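<backbone_tokenisation>
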Amino acid sequence: MSEKQVVEYNVTDAAIAEMKSQYMGLVVKDLQDEKGLAEVHRARMIVKGKRVDVETRRKELKADALAWGKKVDSEANRIFGMLEPIETHLENEENKVTKEKSRIKAEEEKKKHETTQARVDALMRFGVVCPYANALTMTQGEFDARIIIAEDEYKQEQARKAEEVRIENERLASEKKAREEEAAKLDAERAELAVAQRKMENERIAIQAEKDRIEAFKRMEERNKELEQAKKEAAEQAEREAREKAEVEQQAKAEAERQEALKPDKDKLIFYANKLTAFVAPLVESKDAESIIREAEKRLLAINRYIIKAAQEL
């Protein structure tokens, strides 16, 4: 397709001008203007159909080549530019009704919800729980009757509770008075008992003081006896320690003399023990003989140790 070819659509400028002349004057007067709304809607559908035709044709023409497609787009955009104000005008006129109807419906739903919730809240104030669904389907007459009954029952219940409270308060007041009288009686008895207890306590204190004085005197006598006994025991202990010391010294002296007398014999025994282990065993050839010699050496060593230990313990 040559670039010089004219891009043609099945919607001419003259046709668009005709639609503009016919449709731009269409308006919807108000919500009740059903005829005007129908004309606007019909006209918008016609304009929209033309735009769709152009779009379809644009795609057909553009499929041949990119350059031709640009021309197709350019012409389509030019036509869209002329059609858009007409379609927008018609859509705006149509929306006057559709949007307003939606707004009115939403407002009605809101009011309906508020009325239903108000019914639920009103009944709740009188202690009646009414499900939302029940309040929604209830007629105004049914609600009025229900609220009157609920209010009457509520007032009766409040009056009954008030009477119960009054009776309970009278009972509590009577019990309080009885308790106060009983408490006063108990206070008087406690006061008398306190006087008697103080008297008994004073007597007890006097008796205890006398007991304490006697006990103190006894403890003093016992202390003096203990001191005398301690002095006697200390003297006896000193005498006993002196005697034991003399005995220990005498025993030590006797032991020293005994050890001195035994010293020659101890020296001889130790010398004898060392002589036993100083003897050199002969050299032997057989293992049996060597075993005998090792056993003899062990026994001689044991005898050596026995003699030395016994000599030291003399």
